[in-house]
């Protein structure tokens, strides 16, 4: 049965109530935020005591943007062509006027994915009756950390004695020290890539385990221009004898300094909104908070391990796509894969918020002018992303100077 539409005024009131509720969530309810001003501490961007700062602004902005998108999909998909066109552009779900049959299933699944992300960022509680009622859907059990940098990771040689989650040396049943290379799972991780190294997380943090990669602690070096990553730190449990056992991985999100300081992305939706004019590239007005949003998709949906191509589970990582034009092309070529690519969601949510965001004083999430973006094609080839006028169903295009040239107009 179709969901009954709420009167517009009531829907707006309910949305405002929702936004007031989620704005009270603090980042340290979602992550153990690593403290300090060095060794990947986040004190520069988050005040642990007051729960405010840049990262708190990001959290509020993310909640506002996801809430706005969900509200508009659920309430206005059938009435607003701009919503249908955005969904078609980024997720390959055809615009057929109304959501029916298979189209409705896909749109509902898209909305459900966004609601899962909102549940996480708004620290939603379980509503169903039972022993878990009132408990967070995504509880923080000390196993989800946020770092502002990667230099907390320190390289360890493979013949270094392995340490457990309590920072004790691992020894076999004869009292002989066990090296990192002696641990079967670790040896396999090192062999997975000839350039892999073992990186220890425990000298400066409460997370005492190993991460295997080619870059590790150098991931956020300024020259790399990397923004962030999601990874698992593997801790060991020392047993009474023989091989140590692996504990449940600790999930970490790393936000590099570049995600806070790069000059290409605006600090907020409000600043991005003021930059938009004819010829603006949507990719250039994605706010800095999108890095944290992107990583949340990896946290919540996991990673496709590639073991079941016919029925993939988890989002893309490693083969994921970041470029705007490539994301749109992915939706054309492989819609199912586009719906598992985090950056497709980032671009979609960005467009939706510039299209429907509301003014709210000087808040970072305040939008004073609404803008619409849509694809421009020459024949069957995507060449740009510009303003689409629903009234005449014609594309307004200015001179195209690059593959991702944007034309944008006030809505």
Characteristic terms for this protein:
globular, disordered C terminus, 16 strands, 411 residues, alpha+beta, three-stranded antiparallel beta sheet, disordered N terminus, 11 helices, single chain, four-stranded mixed beta sheet, 13% strand
List the helices and strands and how they pair.
Layout: H1 8-22, E1 32-33, H2 54-76, H3 81-91, H4 101-121, E2 144-147, E3 154-156, H5 184-191, E4 197-200, E5 210-213, E6 228-233, E7 236-237, E8 245-246, E9 250-255, H6 257-261, H7 269-275, H8 290-301, H9 324-333, H10 335-338, H11 342-356, E10 371-372, E11 374-378, E12 381-386, E13 388-389, E14 394-395, E15 405-406, E16 409-410
Organism: Daldinia eschscholtzii
Signal peptide: 1-24
InterPro entries: MetalloPept_cat_dom_sf
Question: Overview of this structure, please?
Answer:
This is Lysine-specific metallo-endopeptidase domain-containing protein. Keywords: Signal. One of its GO terms (molecular function) is metallopeptidase activity. The chain is of the alpha+beta class and 411 residues long. The strands form six sheets. Strands 1-2-9-6 form a four-stranded mixed β-sheet. Strands 3-4-5 form a three-stranded antiparallel β-sheet, covered by helices on one side. A three-stranded mixed β-sheet has the order 11-12-15, covered by helices on one side. The protein contains eleven helices and 16 strands. It starts with 7 loop residues before the first helix and ends with a strand. The N terminus and C terminus are likely disordered. The chain has a domain of 107 residues. The longest helix is centred in the first third of the chain and has 23 residues.
């Amino acid at each position: 049965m179709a969901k009954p539409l709420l009167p517009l005024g009531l829907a707006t009131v309910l949305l405002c109530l929702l936004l007031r509720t989620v704005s009270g969530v603090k980042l340290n309810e979602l992550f153990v935020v690593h403290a300090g001003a060095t060794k990947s501490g986040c004190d520069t961007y988050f005040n642990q005591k007051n729960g405010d700062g840049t990262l708190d602004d990001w959290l509020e902005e993310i909640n506002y943007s996801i809430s706005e998108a969900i509200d508009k999909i659920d309430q206005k998909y059938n009435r607003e062509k701009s919503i249908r066109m955005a969904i078609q552009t980024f997720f390959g779900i055809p615009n057929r006027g109304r959501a029916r049959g298979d189209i409705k299933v896909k749109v509902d699944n898209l909305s459900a994915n966004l609601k899962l992300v909102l549940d996480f960022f708004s620290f939603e509680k379980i509503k169903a009756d039972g022993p878990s009622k009132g408990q967070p859907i995504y509880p923080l059990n000390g196993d989800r950390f946020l770092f502002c940098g990667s230099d907390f990771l320190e390289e360890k040689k493979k013949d270094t004695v392995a340490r457990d989650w309590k920072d004790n040396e691992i020894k076999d049943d004869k009292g002989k020290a066990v090296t990192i290379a002696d641990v079967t799972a670790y040896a396999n991780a090192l062999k997975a890539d000839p350039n892999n190294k073992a990186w220890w997380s425990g000298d400066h943090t409460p997370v005492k385990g190993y991460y295997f990669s080619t870059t590790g602690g150098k991931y956020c070096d300024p020259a790399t221009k990397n923004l962030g990553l999601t990874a698992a730190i593997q801790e060991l449990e020392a047993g009474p004898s023989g091989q140590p056992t692996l504990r449940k991985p600790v999930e970490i999100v790393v936000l590099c300094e570049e995600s806070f300081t790069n000059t290409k992305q605006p600090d907020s939706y409000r600043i991005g909104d003021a930059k938009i004019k004819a010829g603006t590239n949507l990719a250039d007005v994605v706010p800095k908070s999108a890095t944290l949003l992107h990583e949340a998709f990896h946290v919540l949906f996991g990673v496709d391990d590639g073991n079941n191509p016919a029925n993939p589970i988890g989002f893309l990582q490693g083969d994921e796509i970041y470029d705007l034009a490539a994301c749109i092309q992915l939706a054309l070529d492989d819609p199912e894969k586009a719906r598992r690519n985090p950056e497709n969601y980032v671009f979609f949510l960005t467009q939706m918020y510039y299209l429907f965001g509301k003014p709210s004083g000087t808040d970072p999430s305040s939008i004073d002018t609404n803008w619409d973006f849509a694809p421009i094609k020459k024949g069957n080839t995507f060449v740009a992303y510009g303003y689409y006028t629903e009234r005449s169903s014609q594309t307004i295009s200015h001179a195209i100077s690059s593959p991702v040239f944007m034309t944008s107009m006030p809505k």
